[in-house]
Write a structure and sequence with these properties.
This protein has about 500 residues and is α/β, with parallel strands linked by helices. The chain contains 14 helices and 27 strands. The longest helix is centred in the middle third of the chain and has 25 residues.
């Protein structure tokens, strides 16, 4: 760019056009229609996760009446739905509200620098289709890209990997031409991706083995919400949706609280359910009894018990063991057993990357994320005019995102009413004890805990994982706080504030 090139300015720049970005855009244009905004999407399509992942059977394990937006009823009869239906829902919602017109594809934000004097961000954008880099400015940066890397998944080192003669595939990069029909497939992993893949592959593969080092809690759930479908017929879509949504929020919250307060009873209940769905005499404790408590990591939901059905029918099996080495024909286990395979799938997790890996500076100083503390789960200490959307780890992601977006818009309204240009959270007590932002036992979180912001031990620095608490804090609570500092731009006002 030359000095004479005009630099575009936007009031709000939303990074990411997935479920969080589309939601943020809706609330922004609803509550602040006069503001200019754009969604920058590094890829060539909207939908985020639901467009990126193409592995067989991909679906949400949250019900879509809560995973969907509060403002856009979920109309499909399936409450646990596949990626194709979710993607159609997201794109239909974006089109109905004109949000798709604000999306700019092949636009990856690589860096953003804040100027307190001007109260604005200067944002460096890489155009992924051409490699060109341009700049624009914005008053607010809203990071809506989630917390994992879109360009690579996590695969640990496997001894002898290069010896295996067949394809080794990570679900995040599923080849469109991969045919597993009639083949022996070993899926390494025990999380949500693995328990989704195994029954889907088992429909056509010769045999599928889910090889896990440690079991996960797996719970069958109905694919259809019969009450929701009946209410829609009686009350209609618009009236039934909020009722079903409230019912499912309460149900999810009840299950989570029960698991937290009574882990042993919850463990026994889950085991009883598993036993009912598995063949008589099946070694439930070997393959479905984790060493941790329920909801210390996320429960894996299987619609209509499809994983258990595949095990009963003999098209799939679960093996709990450790890998000694890959061989030419498959995987040799520490027990001495060898699993023959034509295809190996490494469903071994994700790589976490906060804020899309954007390099942030404030008045020339680098922002080191592990040194920041999350404010109400929506801003970072010492970083002005930056908001982010990270959903729940123990419930539907979108429940949290909706509340965060509402709070963000209320904060903008307050700033408009008082003539403020900038706002920055600042710790009153720099010595406050902190803990990880994602206080969760999943492996992908533990691997990245030292790269993420922290959270405190008191409000407003706690990151709540409870919907009812967040309704009070983010929807009903005052946006003003003693540890939130407002200011006016020196360039505009002529003086500091």
């Amino acid at each position: 760019m030359t000095s004479s090139t005009p630099v575009e300015h936007l009031d709000v720049l939303v990074v990411g056009a997935g479920i969080s970005g589309i939601g943020a855009a809706y609330y922004l244009q609803r509550d602040h229609p006069q503001r200019s905004f754009a969604l920058l999407e590094a890829r060539a399509a909207t939908g985020g996760t639901w467009d990126l992942f193409r592995y067989p059977g991909i679906r949400s394990d949250s019900d879509l009446h809560t995973f969907g937006y509060e403002f856009a009823p979920w109309r499909d009869p399936r409450s646990i739905a596949g990626a194709d239906r979710i993607l159609d829902y997201l794109r239909t919602t974006a089109a109905e509200h004109g949000i798709d017109r604000h999306v700019r594809f092949h636009s990856k934000v690589v860096a953003a620098s804040w100027s307190s004097a001007e109260a604005r961000w200067t944002v460096e954008v890489e155009h992924t289709d051409t490699g060109e880099r341009t700049a624009l400015t914005c008053s607010w940066l809203f990071c809506a890209g989630g917390y994992y890397r879109y360009d690579e998944g996590f695969t640990p080192h496997f001894e002898g990997r290069e010896r295996f003669a067949g394809p080794i595939v990570h679900p995040q990069h599923w080849p469109a031409d991969l045919d597993t029909t009639g083949k022996r497939v070993v899926v390494i992993g025990s999380g949500a991706t693995a328990v989704t893949l195994v029954p889907a592959l088992a429909e056509t593969a010769g045999h599928v083995t889910m090889l896990q080092r440690t079991p996960s809690y797996v719970l069958p759930v109905p694919a259809e919400d019969k009450l929701a479908n009946r209410l829609r017929k009686v009350l209609g879509e618009e009236r039934a949706y909020p009722i079903v949504r409230r019912k499912n929020i309460a149900k999810g919250r009840l299950v989570w609280r029960f698991c937290q307060k009574h882990p042993e009873r919850a463990r026994a209940l889950i085991r009883w359910v598993n036993t009912k769905h598995l063949p008589e005499g099946y070694p439930v404790d070997e393959h479905f009894k984790p060493p941790y408590g329920p909801w210390d990591q996320r429960l894996c939901a299987v619609p209509d018990g499809d994983l258990f059905r595949a095990i009963r029918e003999g098209t799939a099996e679960v093996v709990t063991d450790r890998i000694a080495t890959f061989t030419e024909q498959g995987v040799l286990l520490e027990s001495g057993r060898e699993l023959a395979a034509d295809v190996i799938v490494t469903a071994t997790g994700l790589n976490v990357q906060a804020f899309g890996g954007i390099g942030l500076t404030v008045d020339g100083a680098e922002v080191r994320l592990p040194e920041t503390v999350a404010y109400k789960g929506v801003m970072l200490s010492g970083v002005p005019n930056l908001a982010y959307a990270i959903g729940y780890t123990n419930s539907s992601w979108t429940l949290k995102v909706g509340l965060l977006c509402e709070h963000f818009c209320r904060l903008l309204t307050h700033m408009d009413e008082h003539g403020y240009d900038a706002v920055r959270p600042e710790l009153a007590d720099p010595g406050m004890p902190t803990r990880p932002l994602l206080d969760f036992g999943a492996g992908y979180v533990r691997r990245a805990v030292d790269q993420l912001p922290r959270q405190g031990d008191r409000a407003p620095w706690l990151t709540s994982m409870d919907y009812r608490t967040d309704v009070g804090l983010l929807r009903a609570g005052n946006v003003v706080d003693p540890e939130l500092h407002f200011s006016r731009a020196a360039v505009r006002a002529g003086v500091g504030a």
